[in-house]
Amino acid sequence: MAIIRSIRHFVWGEVPATKTERRLLLKIDWFILSYCCLMYFSNYLDRSNVSNAYVSGMREELHMYGTQFNQINTIFTCGYIVGMIPNNLMLQVVPPRIWFPSMQIVWGVLTFWQVPFTCHTTSAVTNVQQIYAIRFFQGIAESSTFVGTHYILGSWYKPGELGKRSGIFTSSGLIGTLFSGVLQAAVYTHLNGVAGRSGWRWLFIIDGIITMPIALYGFLMFPDVPTTTKAFYLSEEERLLSCERLESEKDKDINHGHLSWGLVRRILGRWRWYACSLLFAVSGETESFGSNNLMGQWLKAIGGFTVPQIDYYPSGMTAFAIVSTLVCATWTDATKSRARWPVLVYMAISGIVASICILVWSSPIGLKFFAYYLAGATYAGQATTFAWANQICADDHQERAVVLASMNMWNNVVNAWWPLVFYPATDAPRFTKGMWAMIGTCIATLLVTWLVWYLERREKRDKARHEREEAEEKGSRKSRDVDEKSVKSQAVSSRRSHESA
Asked: What's the pTM?
């Protein structure tokens, strides 16, 4: 029984103290994670579909050339950057159960615009410039999902519960990537040319059909945050407990309210915004293997592989990314210190090894397959990095919202031009510049990880010293009060003795 409890603690975190808390945790796990994971799944499915469509007929049909594929991703990223912080701040004003599904409907409608309206009309998209416009506005809408969900997770869960939930959420996006490759291969095989539509256009139709019901589910079932939830499936006792169990956590701020200009002063006056933003701006670029579909472009460029194979084979990288994310997130929650930095070390080393294997071009093709699959480990730091930031900013919920959004925003600022410089489609299949850039990025990730670890440790040490000094001052003040009372008491006793004499 003790072994079972230990395994359960490792896999799912601390066992709730009461039956009521166990029931509460089960409910929020189901309704928060189910919606957020489905939303992120459809989000990443849409992003990955563009990459898969490019190698499955879109390039030829839209007469794309040069770096236009990279430009599509860059324009999407620009929209993503524009929407990042406004979307997260809107969660302070508009209930998340309204905002999240609304943004999902927006990007779902835009997805449908990439296909013909009927089999008898010309396509809604006839050239790459129209794709540019659609992807920009999709980027604005889709930017609500990732950092918004990390903000919600940090609002409901304790530090010992947060890592693995972040890992499950992040993995749902990777599952979207994995499913996209399988879906594109199946669509190309069975639907290409049906009703006068290309296979890659059918992919977007299916994507939109998947997205809409998930948005409806969010409108009906998402519970907002603990202090404002009106979810019908939570009893009044459970609503109160959802706040109380977080208030028991030291330095945890669970308030959810109006914005003020004091927020800007707090953010710019602390190290957290600068260091956390720098951390993900750098470490997020280690995901370039997958985000730019380098393996798919490599397979297409060297030849000898069918379209379904080009869609299927990169799924191995995504599968390893999912396993790495879940294992690392679970492990960091299980450690007593909730240390997140070892995961960043693991992913950086994996990225360096993979890059070296690909740079040695004379190496066998099997080693290159191994290298691309190993590169999936670079996704492992995504969940733990945001869980780390949630912990660092736990004492200020508004700062936490901005820091989480800024981390992803600055990563996307870099990502807007990074692929154009280091991973242009014209560099396939070798991507020599990109591999050297990856090695440099991984080394920089190690350095910035140490910086954040040092600053967090210093802040905790300073806070502990301040609390100790306050306790000593309080004790000293209490001692002086006692001494003063003792002196007064002695004076009164002396006066009474004198009067009696």
From this structure: 0.75
